[in-house]
Design brief:
single chain, Pantoate--beta-alanine Ligase, Chain: A,domain 2, globular, 9 helices, binds pantoate, Rossmann fold
């Protein structure tokens, strides 16, 4: 493993940094981020390193992508903590950090070819953020083109994003192994998110109800989808300051929910002015191998 972190701010510098690794035939692992790195991101870097081994080259990008924010969303106030981010990358044994400016990623402006995310982007997050996934997939496609990784790791916390990136990689034959890494949580269950830092102490205390609702659903999932939804709604009831956007059960690939077997429960809610999302795996109906 290389111990010196190379910081590349341009496409050319990125290619210069990667050239010797490509020449040596090293596997390239990639973790795209928008910075404000926390233990969840560090777990993605760790997972990527496991995929590529000590001889692989681990690349992290830090880029707050404007095209995935709608007007009025938090693009301007999105936390930017580059010094701490670089320290986190160095501590995780990252080899190359790509920190491009907007013009480096969008040299021709924003109105060029974009990735149409298709119908999966119109449900769940897509209902209240209809342009979000076009921006995400477009920037991820660009970053994939620049880094040409063998494997890229994304968090299950953004489950719909992960599903769409998998879809894009398959449907556009990108030949990249997309790996999902489990959500990292605070000790009380709150999923780690760069946006948690927007929460004041009262909002932070209220926000834990999202994960509590999901865990309650997991406990009742053996009795079916309606029971799981009922348990989650009961857990959410009566928490002031939490404005539910959606609470849904879907198949693991986000198709229609199955009557029984593996499924996913996804939630989004506004806590104050902060929109939070979370999700967990469910097994609907009798547990596998259990009595029916
Ligand atoms: O998950 C994120 O941080 C972003 O959506 C991503 C994948 C880096 C694209 O900007």
């Amino acid at each position: 493993m290389t111990s010196t972190l190379v910081r590349a701010e341009s496409r050319a510098a990125l290619q210069d940094a990667l050239a010797p690794h490509r020449a040596a035939g090293a596997r390239i692992g990639f973790v795209p981020t928008m910075g404000a790195l926390h233990a969840g991101h560090r777990s993605l870097m760790h997972a990527a390193r496991e995929q590529i081994g000590a001889d692989g080259v681990l690349v992290v990008s830090i880029f707050v992508n404007p095209t995935q924010f709608a007007p009025g969303e938090d693009l301007d106030k999105y936390p930017r903590t580059l010094d701490a981010d670089l320290e986190a990358c160095a501590a995780e044994g990252v080899d190359v950090v790509f920190v491009p400016g907007v013009a480096e990623v969008y040299p021709a402006g924003e109105g060029q070819v974009t990735v149409d995310p298709g119908p999966l982007a119109t449900v769940l997050e897509g209902v209240s953020r209809p342009t979000h996934f076009r921006g995400v997939l477009t920037v991820v496609a660009k970053l994939f083109g620049l880094v040409s990784p063998d494997v890229a790791v994304f968090g299950e916390k953004d489950y719909q994003q992960l599903a769409l990136i998998r879809r894009m990689t398959t449907d556009l034959c990108l030949g990249i192994d997309v790996v999902g890494a489990p959500t990292v949580r605070e000790p009380d269950g709150l999923a780690l998110s760069s946006r948690n830092r927007y929460l004041d102490p009262d909002q932070r205390a209220a926000a834990v109800v999202l994960s509590r609702a999901l865990f309650a659903a997991q406990e009742d999932a053996a009795r079916g989808a309606a029971a799981a939804l009922g348990a989650a709604r009961a857990a959410l009831r009566g928490t002031p300051g939490v404005d539910l956007d959606y609470l849904e059960i879907a198949a693991p690939d986000l198709g229609p929910a199955p009557p029984e077997g593996p499924a996913r429960m996804l939630i989004a809610a506004r806590v104050g002015s902060t929109r939070l999302i979370d999700n967990v795996a469910l097994h609907l109906g009798a547990p596998e191998g259990g009595d029916s």
